[in-house]
Amino acid sequence: MLPMPLLTMKFGGTSVADLERMRTVASKIKYEVERGYNVIAVVSAMAGATNKLIGLVESTSNLFDAREYDAVVSTGESQSSGLLALTLQDIGIPARSWQGWQVPVITTSAHGTARITQIETENLNAKFAEGMRVAVVAGFQGTSPEGRMTTLGRGGSDTSAVAFATAFKSERCDIYTDVDGVYTADPRIVPNARKLQKISYEEMLELASLGAKVLQTRSVELAMRNNVRLCVRSSFNDEPGTLVCDEEEIMEKNTVSGIAQTVDEAKISILSVEDRPGIAEAVFGPLAAAGVNVDMIIQTISERELTDITFTCPVNQVELAESALKSARDRGSVGFRGLVADTDVCKVSVVGIGMRSHTGVASKMFGALAKQKINIKAISTSEIKISVLVDQIYRDLAVKALHDEFGLNYSN
Amino acid sequence: MLPMPLLTMKFGGTSVADLERMRTVASKIKYEVERGYNVIAVVSAMAGATNKLIGLVESTSNLFDAREYDAVVSTGESQSSGLLALTLQDIGIPARSWQGWQVPVITTSAHGTARITQIETENLNAKFAEGMRVAVVAGFQGTSPEGRMTTLGRGGSDTSAVAFATAFKSERCDIYTDVDGVYTADPRIVPNARKLQKISYEEMLELASLGAKVLQTRSVELAMRNNVRLCVRSSFNDEPGTLVCDEEEIMEKNTVSGIAQTVDEAKISILSVEDRPGIAEAVFGPLAAAGVNVDMIIQTISERELTDITFTCPVNQVELAESALKSARDRGSVGFRGLVADTDVCKVSVVGIGMRSHTGVASKMFGALAKQKINIKAISTSEIKISVLVDQIYRDLAVKALHDEFGLNYSN
């Protein structure tokens, strides 16, 4: 007998927020089971549950043991997986729940941010062979080599899903969420944004790390590395969604596939730095050591041995960055006159694999922004994206102008 | 190096209801640690958590899979054990949480009502040897031979605690609860009830099964069988509590140690049953087969081949009992004219190991009730207890009269 084809389906917290929604999820799973698939359903905790548990843990102590954090916080997924298994059984689907340690999902011991090192397939496959049609897996969870519960960090259920799809050679990994696919821009900013039928891993990765919240960056990386086809779809309708796949699968390659924006950026200028060889290391070495995530860097042309260096980092790391630089100055490893932080900035990016073969995207982008009189404060590029830093008040205007400029509107 | 003396401490749901109460619990544990004990702290779920989880499970399906019920419901103890471990760490006590599968606590596969078959001591002892001072164990939980989560049924954390105390040869098992010991009667009924310093296992077992809610019957049985000294104490004060121990440890044996009462009793009379040999089996066989928990039985003297048989059972089994008897009549295995159920009754009992050597307790009891003009509707006895069934409206009056009659008041 040939083994049944296998599908991995992942449901986020809003998709399993209550028992009513779980019934909707169960009917989606039933549809696939009736089409002949065995299903691995990976679930997040019911919306709100994880935050509530984190709140309890944080109230016990300022410096808490991450192993106990994991023991407590992982219970949200244990609950939702059991409840979804029950809901499936109630409509006649042979299902059972699996906690991380039961599969087992082996992870590193980096509690709170563990990485999956291995997923054993033996136990699940044995149960599939006995007639189980749906394995409801608690996402986000694993077990360390020491036998403690671990969690994968925020959004870890997406990563769990891709890891299961990889380990079980799943035909596809469907990520059900509260949006029905990947759009050319955030529809709240651009009402006529278009849903993409397909998008390449590389583009999705850029979009995810540039602020599109639809998929967790790590899960896209993992899918790309293991060539797992991801489908982003809605738990609340039956629309086809967006397929994230190898660019070979995409016939029509867009020059620009989408526009993304982030708001949690800050720009820090270091004023009157002595301009000498090795100064970049003297500035960015201490920042890296302090764990500051530096993104864009601009160095203005120097006058009389003094220069200004500007960089961006996440807005919640501004204090960290300032104290790292001041310590470096106190130690005498770098001299500067002052620091200025600007948190009213945002990053707007255009992304598309077609950029590799099309030139002129940058000048088209800068032209469109200039036409709106939007000042560009910093620029960074990669092979398939161009990002600019602009004042936050121009965010929506910039996104709309670029969406229009690159012909991404629904009517096109 | 001699191993440290070990104490098992159990905290119920009201004792760990919130983080504030957990801090009180932690300070009680710290006190014992500072006295030189290693501690196994067994915890229930935070008050209300288990009922909420049961509600969710019951909403998924009418006939739910007990294995998934256990997977979901057991998470309450996983949470509270992690949170208490964190609270202990915060006051400098080396503590960690242990879920059932981590110890492991091996149970039968009777999900929802599992029994502990083995507690492995190796893992905990290894951690104690490494410097762990408190193992915070999720009570109520275990793992089946198949590797599924199991739960021990209502009040199972008491049983967990006694099982741990047995496996680890704990010096004592302290059961912290919301009352500060075992009283001669329920203080809400008898305000001058007296707290007992010591009580024998046998008496505690009778009191527990006769309605005293302070300890779960199963845990007392287990403690008696393994000679684990139990101490019932309050989480909310530092009073010494009541020691439940072997009667050898009790110098002064009371004739009557306490008065207990239940309210969930029902009396069913089967009218005009044919009086012939084998009729008891014909009546009580079908009741036993249906799972009805028959307690007291009275058969009135028969007239002309017909008799009335009266028995008591839990009030929630009345319908079950009636349908079992009617089916038996329909099958022709027993004949009777009708059934009358009375749910306005209660059982009042006097318990004391001293009854073994003292006579006259029954007549003293009946005399005290007669003096109050309370009609006795049924009687049952064991070696160390006498129970009577009376109308529910006389419950408090009966308890007070007996408490007084046997000299149990505080002033004595």
Properties at a glance:
alpha/beta, 412 residues, homodimer
Number of strands of chain A: 18
Could you state the oligomeric state of the chains shown?
homodimer
Distance between the termini of chain A: 49 Å
Low-confidence stretches of chain A: none
Query: What would you call the shape of chain A?
Result: globular
The run of helices and strands of chain A is EHEHHHEEEHEEEHEEHHEEEHEEHEHEEH
Mean pLDDT of chain A: 92
Based on helices, strands and strand pairing, what is the structural class of chain A?
A: alpha/beta
Largest sheet of chain A: 8 strands, mixed
Please report the number of helical segments of chain A.
12
Give a brief outline of the structure:
2 copies of one chain form a homodimer. The first copy, chain A, has helices spanning 19-34, 49-60, 66-73, 75-90, 122-129, 156-167, 201-209, 217-226, 279-289, 318-330, 361-371, 395-405; strands at residues 6-11, 38-43, 95-98, 105-107, 116-119, 134-138, 141-143, 149-151, 173-177, 198-200, 230-234, 242-245, 258-274, 297-299, 306-314, 338-351, 378-382, 385-391.
